[in-house]
Amino acid sequence: MPSTRHWSAYDGRYRRPRADALRAVCACGRRGAAEYPLDWATIGDRPLYEAKPRRVDLSVRRLYCENTTCPKVTFAEQVPGLTVRYQRRTPRLQRLVEDVGVVLAGRGGSRMLRILNIRLSRVALLSQLMRVPLPPLVTPRVLGLDDFALYGGTYGTLLVDATTRLPLTLWEGRDAEQLGRWLREHPGVKVACRDGSLTYRQGITAGAPEAVQVSDRFHLWQGLSRRVQDIASTHRSCLPAALPAVSEDDPPPAGETGKGTAADTRAGRHAQSLFGAVQALTRTGRSHSSVARELGLDRRTVGKYARARTWQEVMRRPPRKPSTLDPYLDYLRQRWDEGQHSAKILHEELQTKGYLGHYQRVKMAVATLRRGLPIDEPRERPPSPREAARWITTHPHRRSPHINERLPRLLDHCPELKLTHDLVRRFATMVDNQDAAPLPDWLSELANSGLAPLAGLAGALREARHAVAQGITTPYNSGVNEGRITDVKLQKRIMAGRAGVLLLRHRVVLIAHLRRRYADQPTVSPR
Fold first, then answer.
1. pTM of the model
2. CA 194 – CA 213 distance, rounded (Å)
C-alpha cells in the first residue's frame, strides 16, 4: 500500500485560515478575494528510500480573481515546494522523472522508473522530456564545430562552446548557409575551430567574417597521413625492400621449389593469364576503365595488375600462421637428417622437450620432408601501405626497434617515400615547435614534389593557409568537438537510432548540463 500524507492549509474549520495561511496569487499577479469550498487534490511524490510509492492528499483554497481582464475566473492556491500549477507531481518527483528521461530516454527510462514504482509509459516520459526547457544559449567566444553521421548518408552539424566544453545546438545537414545564418543570429564569436571542410570555411566567412578560423591539427595530420598512405599504395612494389635480406643458406619458401611451384597451381595460372591480358591491353595506351569493361574486371583490379612488374606481385600469398611447432623445427630437421623418420617417435621426443601440440602437426611436417621439400618456415611478409604510412608518420622516438630496423631500408630503396618521410617530419617539427614560419616554403616543396597526392594537399592547404597557421601556433583545437560527437553517437545508440533531430538535440544538450550539475555537487563520504 502506498504511504499517504494529508496536507491541509486549514486547521479543520471551513473559511477560517490559520495564522500562517498561504498567500494565494493569480498568474496575472492579483490576489484572490472570495473563496470557494476547499479543493481536494492527490499528487504523487518521490518514493521513499525503500522504493515504495508515496501519495499526498492535499486540501487547498480555490478563489476568484478580481482582475476583470484576466482569462482565469478561479484559481487554486499553491503550496511552495509541494505543488506546481497544472502538475500532478511534486517538484521533487517531476525533477526525478525529467532526469531519468534525459539520461535513458523513452523505453529505458520507463523501465527504470518502474523499478522505483513510478508507472509512466515511454511516450509520456518523452513528452515530459521535450517539455524541459533548454538552458539559455550564450554566444561563445571560442566556437567549435564539426560534422557527424546522423543516419545513412546524412550528416549533421554540432556546435560546442570550446571554453565551457558544453554543446550548444545541432542540426541536420552541413551546409554553409545554415551555419552562416546561425552565426549572424548569435554575434560575438571571436575564434572558430573547424576541420578542413570547405563548407564550414565558407559558412564562417559569411556569418562571422571577423572571427579567426583555426584549422584543427588533428585533421591536418589525418589528411597528411592519408596522402602518405596513397603514395605507399602507388609504390607498393617497393615495400618488400623493408624486409631483411635472405641469405643463401635459408631454405626458399614453399611453392617456389620442387613440384609445388606457384605457377603450377590454379591460382597461379589464373594470375598469369590476367597479368598477360592486362599488360597487353594497357601497353596499347588504353585506359583502365576500357580494359576493365573488355575483360569484365573491376577498374581497381586492372590498375593493380597494370602497376605490377611480375605476376607474382599480385598473387595472394597469405602468411603462414605461427604454430606451436615452430620452435622445434630445427630439432625436427636435425633428427630427420640423422635417420629418424617415424612421426610417432619424433612426436614423443618433442613432448619430452616441452612440445604440447598435437601429433597430427608433426605428422604433416614429416610428410613434407618425405616428399623431399623443406619445411614451410614462417616468413615475414612485407608491410602493407597502411603500415608503411604509420611507420613514416610515427615520431622517431616512439618507433619500435622493429620499425627502426626496416624503415631505413625501405627509404633507401624508394626515393619517393624518402621524400615523403622528410616532408612529414618537417611538418611534425612545425607542429611540435608551434612555429608556422616555414609553412610557405613547406607548401611550395609539397607542390613541387612531383607526387600527386602531396601536390593536391598543398593546393587545399594554401587556400586555407591562415587557418592552418593558426592551428599550428595557437592552443585552440577541435578536441572538445570530437569528444561531444562521441557522446552524440552514444545517445543515438541508446535510442537505437530511432530518435529525430529535435529529440537528439534536446538530450545531447540537457545531458551535458545534467552531468555538469551533478559533478559540481560536493560528494558526501559515508561515515
1. 0.63
2. 7
Task: Give the Cα separation of 501 and 485 in Å (integer).
Answer: 14
**Cell triple for 206:** 559569411
d(CA 25, CA 469): 61
Taking the C-alpha atoms of residue 453 and residue 460, their distance in angstroms, rounded to an integer, is: 11
- 3-state secondary structure (DSSP) of residue 362: helix
Which set of grid coordinates corresponds to residue 252? 626458399
Radius of gyration of the chain (CA): 37
pLDDT digits (tens), the chain, 527 positions: 344 444 443 333 333 333 334 456 666 655 555 555 545 455 555 554 455 666 767 666 777 676 767 777 677 777 766 777 766 777 777 788 888 888 888 888 888 888 887 888 888 888 888 888 888 888 899 999 988 888 877 888 999 998 889 999 999 888 889 999 999 999 999 999 988 888 888 999 998 999 999 998 888 999 999 999 999 988 888 888 888 765 444 444 433 443 344 556 667 778 888 888 888 888 888 889 898 888 888 888 888 888 887 777 776 655 556 778 888 888 888 888 888 889 899 999 999 988 888 888 888 888 878 766 666 655 567 888 999 999 999 998 888 888 888 899 999 999 999 999 999 999 999 999 988 899 999 999 999 988 888 988 888 888 888 989 988 998 888 888 888 888 888 888 877 767 788 888 888 898 888 888 877 666 555 55
CA-based torsion, 160, 161, 163, 166: positive or negative: negative
Give the span between the Cα atoms of 160 and 487, in whole angstroms.
Answer: 12
The DSSP 8-state label assigned to residue 478 in this structure reads S
Say if CB 336 and CB 345 are below 8 A apart: no
The 3 state secondary structure assigned to 332-356 is HHHHHHCCCCCHHHHHHHHHHCCCC
56-76 exposure pattern, b = at least 16 Cβ within 10 A, e = fewer: bebebbebebeeeeeeeeebb
Q: How far is CA 434 from CA 214, 326, 415, in A?
A: 13, 50, 29
- Cβ neighbors of 383 (< 8 A, separation 6 or more) are 239, 242, 391, 406, 410
Q: Who's near 87: CB < 8 A, 6+ residues apart?
A: 43, 94
H helical segments located in 36-164: 91-115, 122-130
CB 21 within 8 A of CB 9: yes
Say which amino acid occupies 93: L
Cβ contact 78:25 at 8 Å = no
Cβ atoms within 10 Å, residue 331: 14
- Cell match 493569480: residue? 26
In the 8-state DSSP scheme, what is residue 263?
Answer: G
